[in-house]
Write a structure and sequence with these properties.
Helix content: over 70%
Strand order of the largest sheet: 1-2
Oligomer: single chain
Strand content: under 5%
Number of helices: 36
Length: about 675
Amino acid sequence: MDGGGMAGSRTTGRAERGPDLDLEHDARRVLALAVLADDLNPAALARLAGIGLAGVEAALAAGRDRGLVGPDGLTADGAAALADALDPDEAASAHAAIARRLIADGPDRLDEAIRHARAGSSVEELEGLLDVIDHAARTGLSVSDYASTQRLLELADELDLGAEPLDRARRLCLLAEALDGLGREADAREAAARAFDLAELEGDAATATRAAVLHTLPIGWNAGDPRSASQLQRAEALDPGPADQVAIAAARAIVEIRVPLSLQADVQVAWATRASLAQPLAERALERSLGAPPWHRCIALLAWRTTHRAPQHLKRRREASREALDLAQRLRLPGRQVEAALMLAVDGLESADRPTFDEALGVARWVAERDGNPRLRAHAHALAASAAFMDEDLDTAERHRAVAHRLGQHAGLASRTGTDAVLMAQSLILRGDLGAIVAAVPAEDDPMLAHPLARALAAEARVRRGDAVAAERDLRRALRSLDEETSQLLTWTLAASSAVALGLDDVIDRLVRDLAPWADHVAVDGNGWWCGGPVSFALAELHLATGDTDRAAVLLGRALTTARAMGDVRTLHRIEALVPGSGVEPIDVPAEVPRAAAGSRTAAGRDGGALARLTVRETQVLTLLARGATNPEIARTLSYSLTTVKDDTRAVYRKLGVTGRAEAAALAGELGLV
């Protein structure tokens, strides 16, 4: 009998008897893993089995010798035999090992990992599997992979129904952060509430504090929530440590500063502020946070900034916002980063500090886009729309407004109605659409009119319509309901125009008295959605109405200086419109802010119309670009960020219809900019 015949008879005999499973334990385990993982890669199997490559190669060789492994991988008979031969404990162990490896490898094969995890959740394997899930969930949070984190934590909750209450509470806190990152704010708060209940049951003050603070966040739109207030009070009763006492006091300040005036849960546009209750809490938290861990200090700073919006707090607000942003960046907390950046942007705007505003807005937009949270993105786009309105770049403003509206709807933000109303009002006013302005005034029973800023806007709209009686009514109501923590300067400056138009001497006198201490500020609402321009401009209008032209001239000069520094095209246009009939000597727009951008619509040249649509800052960028300056040189000269200059350069190319730097410079020369 030759060798070929003997080999053939052995193969036939083996096929009749089935694959030979007489293997060493390690080899059998390696091949079982290969079956369940459907993977014969030696390196992958070595990781799964926790042995060296030599052991895997030996197992594969044994499998080939016994007909379990063929040239193209596991044989069908071999795979079936190995799967059938596994007892339940072996199968669970193999599935758990595969799940651990797939989870550790990242989110790309998460569906497969979850399937194996469910199949491998025996008591013996569960602890190691949960450790891997917990680690992967924390990693997912750190890189803003909220979807994977949510699925992993929900899997852990499903597998570990008998877990210790504190373990579940801590996972629920992580789940709350993941759900918030997905824009599912209501679900996030529910997870935080469940975590709090478990931690309170166990008497764990630290976990209860964290859960209660998470239930309070995000800052702003959960103000007045009775459930948050109750949790914080109960957490305090658990006798927390000094650092957690800081966090509780800060969160209580955030909750207590204002109570919504609207009864509609999904619409929040106006509040009654309670500074006398919230500000002492915030002061105490900030004072005691000096030696606290960074997370607690960050929350204390944000709480202080949230509860101190009045103009007299501006200097400390800037300091608190800046420090909070630095801490949030160091802690890699995207939600807190964006909140702090938006606060700093508002503070920069009110300070007439455009570079700080641009820098903070750039940080907010970059972090929000990288993070993907629709709530953060909506707030960043809303502020970007406000900046574009200030620049009178209506196309860009409308684009940002539409994105903010869409994201706000997707996330179910209670703030979306107020945000959209404020941005739409600016668009209508700048476009001069009187019919649309009048039509946009809310009905008397609309909750929007509970906000003094909305009342002031309604008064301005009725002035334009010629309804003096209704305009005066709205104006007086706006001033009657105003408090210093609710967009004070912006409401006053909007009221100034209406008061002058209506000739209300008592209101004019009051506004002169109230605005005078803040002449060097810029009027902006608390969220930065509307920049009303320099306070000095509103004061100049008021003094002109009283006949004090000398004082008005001084204030107009200050307003012009501020508007130039801010690149505030809207105010530059208002100054030019006011001066000719005011009795004040005309104020020339200087060469560094070309008149085509600052109000004149008569620029000559084949693209004069496009040049007239450039913002002040874009015109400055074009002028320097035409003189040969590089983007970094332009940024240094104008004190803007490099990102801002790059964005402006692209906007210049688009508006002028040119393809690059050379064409833009040539056109600038034709139009007399250089």
